[in-house]
Please model this.
Amino acid sequence: MQPTYCKPHNHFKISKMTGLNSRMQVSWPSLACPSGNGVKLWSNEWDKYGTCSRSKQHEYFEAALKLKDKIDLIQILKSSGIKPDGKFYSLFKIKDSLRGALGYEPGVYCNDDKSGKNNQLYQISICFETSGSKVIECPGLPNAGVGCASKIKFPAF
Model:
């Protein structure tokens, strides 16, 4: 398993996000409902994972934004014909596409949509070494997608 909550006393502080807030709202919004403004999501990500990095809070999120710009998961999937269009895709094809582009298998997580009838793509996790510059194999990830059926819906957003 990946380390979590490494420095529990080092809590997220919105004041340390100066200069990043507007970009974070666009690039790392909360898709949970009610969505709010993302601060709760960012706080959770920092407290759980960021405190295990070598970076300070501002540097951690700045690096995350740069990595997001560098590794465009949506574009990787689109290049394999997998689009956020509400259609169903093979879990194997999704993971294979990402593995081919990243060099390592990512974590793929699914949940059920509002109707409770359709299993859908919920989250993709990629692991980086602690400096944030290199993709690594995620320790402790199961081989199959977590909570995923063999065919999953890629919801439009």
Q: What stands out?
A: The helical segments are 21-27, 39-48, 57-70, 73-78, 91-102. The longest strand covers residues 119-125. Residues 119 and 149 are 7 Å apart (CA to CA). The chain has five helices and six strands.
